[in-house]
Amino acid sequence: MNTLRNFILAGACLTLAVLALGCGDEAGGGGGSAQGCDACASGEVCVAYLGAEDEEEREECAAAPAACGATPTCEVDACRGALYGLCDEEWIGVGCSDTFPPPIVSCNPSR
Protein backbone atom coordinates (compact mmCIF):
# COMPACT_ATOMS: atom_id res chain seq x y z
CA MET A 1 0.00 0.00 0.00
CA ASN A 2 2.83 2.39 0.86
CA THR A 3 4.54 1.62 -2.44
CA LEU A 4 1.42 2.58 -4.40
CA ARG A 5 1.08 5.77 -2.38
CA ASN A 6 4.75 6.59 -3.05
CA PHE A 7 4.24 6.07 -6.81
CA ILE A 8 1.22 8.36 -6.78
CA LEU A 9 3.09 11.01 -4.79
CA ALA A 10 6.09 10.75 -7.12
CA GLY A 11 3.82 11.07 -10.15
CA ALA A 12 2.09 14.11 -8.70
CA CYS A 13 5.42 15.78 -7.86
CA LEU A 14 6.79 15.06 -11.32
CA THR A 15 3.60 16.40 -12.89
CA LEU A 16 4.05 19.65 -11.00
CA ALA A 17 7.68 19.80 -12.12
CA VAL A 18 6.61 19.26 -15.75
CA LEU A 19 4.06 22.06 -15.41
CA ALA A 20 6.64 24.41 -13.91
CA LEU A 21 9.22 23.71 -16.61
CA GLY A 22 6.72 23.92 -19.46
CA CYS A 23 5.55 27.46 -18.80
CA GLY A 24 6.94 30.28 -20.91
CA ASP A 25 10.26 30.78 -22.59
CA GLU A 26 13.64 32.13 -21.49
CA ALA A 27 12.33 35.68 -21.66
CA GLY A 28 9.75 34.81 -19.02
CA GLY A 29 6.62 34.74 -21.14
CA GLY A 30 4.80 32.53 -23.56
CA GLY A 31 5.76 32.56 -27.17
CA GLY A 32 7.80 30.63 -29.64
CA SER A 33 6.63 27.31 -30.99
CA ALA A 34 4.58 25.15 -28.66
CA GLN A 35 6.21 21.96 -27.46
CA GLY A 36 5.18 19.09 -25.22
CA CYS A 37 1.95 19.73 -23.35
CA ASP A 38 1.78 23.28 -24.72
CA ALA A 39 1.19 21.80 -28.18
CA CYS A 40 -2.04 20.06 -27.16
CA ALA A 41 -5.22 21.39 -28.76
CA SER A 42 -8.57 21.90 -27.09
CA GLY A 43 -10.14 18.52 -26.36
CA GLU A 44 -6.75 16.81 -26.04
CA VAL A 45 -4.87 15.66 -22.98
CA CYS A 46 -1.14 15.51 -22.37
CA VAL A 47 0.34 12.09 -21.62
CA ALA A 48 3.68 12.51 -19.83
CA TYR A 49 6.02 9.52 -19.74
CA LEU A 50 8.29 9.90 -16.73
CA GLY A 51 10.80 7.13 -17.35
CA ALA A 52 13.46 5.35 -15.43
CA GLU A 53 16.95 6.82 -15.28
CA ASP A 54 18.01 5.16 -18.55
CA GLU A 55 14.91 6.26 -20.45
CA GLU A 56 14.14 9.64 -21.92
CA GLU A 57 11.07 11.49 -20.67
CA ARG A 58 8.51 12.50 -23.29
CA GLU A 59 5.11 14.14 -23.60
CA GLU A 60 2.43 13.39 -26.18
CA CYS A 61 -0.95 14.88 -26.95
CA ALA A 62 -3.86 12.46 -27.22
CA ALA A 63 -7.56 12.83 -27.88
CA ALA A 64 -9.63 12.81 -24.70
CA PRO A 65 -11.35 9.44 -24.15
CA ALA A 66 -15.09 9.25 -24.83
CA ALA A 67 -15.63 8.35 -21.15
CA CYS A 68 -14.61 11.92 -20.27
CA GLY A 69 -17.33 13.62 -22.33
CA ALA A 70 -16.70 17.18 -23.47
CA THR A 71 -14.41 18.12 -20.58
CA PRO A 72 -11.74 15.69 -19.38
CA THR A 73 -11.44 15.74 -15.59
CA CYS A 74 -9.45 13.82 -13.01
CA GLU A 75 -12.31 14.13 -10.52
CA VAL A 76 -14.62 11.60 -12.21
CA ASP A 77 -13.53 7.98 -11.66
CA ALA A 78 -14.60 6.73 -15.10
CA CYS A 79 -12.78 9.56 -16.86
CA ARG A 80 -9.65 9.23 -14.71
CA GLY A 81 -9.55 5.49 -15.43
CA ALA A 82 -9.89 6.15 -19.17
CA LEU A 83 -7.14 8.79 -18.96
CA TYR A 84 -4.81 6.29 -17.27
CA GLY A 85 -5.66 3.92 -20.12
CA LEU A 86 -3.91 6.34 -22.50
CA CYS A 87 -0.52 5.21 -21.14
CA ASP A 88 1.32 2.87 -23.50
CA GLU A 89 1.61 -0.83 -22.77
CA GLU A 90 4.31 -1.47 -20.15
CA TRP A 91 3.46 1.88 -18.52
CA ILE A 92 1.08 2.62 -15.65
CA GLY A 93 -0.87 5.79 -14.92
CA VAL A 94 0.28 7.26 -11.62
CA GLY A 95 -1.02 10.80 -11.60
CA CYS A 96 -3.64 13.04 -13.12
CA SER A 97 -3.75 16.83 -13.04
CA ASP A 98 -6.47 19.02 -14.49
CA THR A 99 -5.67 22.26 -12.65
CA PHE A 100 -4.55 23.95 -15.88
CA PRO A 101 -5.42 22.93 -19.43
CA PRO A 102 -4.61 20.55 -20.88
CA PRO A 103 -5.17 17.78 -18.33
CA ILE A 104 -1.93 15.85 -17.77
CA VAL A 105 -1.68 12.11 -17.16
CA SER A 106 1.63 10.93 -15.72
CA CYS A 107 2.80 7.45 -16.73
CA ASN A 108 5.66 5.50 -15.13
CA PRO A 109 7.25 2.24 -16.31
CA SER A 110 5.30 -0.72 -14.87
CA ARG A 111 8.44 -2.78 -14.28
Structure write-up:
It is a single chain. This protein is α+β, with helices and mostly antiparallel strands and 111 residues long. Helices cover 25% and strands 23% of the residues. Strands 2-1-4-3 form a 4-stranded mixed beta sheet, with helices on both faces. Strand 1 (44-49) and strand 2 (58-63) form a beta hairpin.
Write the layout of secondary structure elements.
Layout: H1 2-21, E1 44-49, E2 58-63, H2 77-84, E3 91-97, E4 104-109
Parallel strand pairs: 1-4
Antiparallel strand pairs: 1-2, 3-4
Strand content: 15-25%
Largest sheet: number of strands, sense, barrel closure: 4 strands, mixed
Strand order of the largest sheet: 2-1-4-3
Helix content: 25-40%
Distance between the termini: 17 Å
- General shape: globular
Count the E strands. Answer: 4
Regions with little confidence, pLDDT below 50 for 5+ residues? 1-32
Order of helices and strands: HEEHEE
The radius of gyration is 14 Å
Given the helix and strand composition, which structural class is it? alpha+beta
Mean pLDDT value: 76
Number of helices: 2
List descriptors:
4-stranded mixed beta sheet; 23% strand; 2 helices
Brief overview, please?
The N terminus is likely disordered. This protein is of the alpha+beta class.
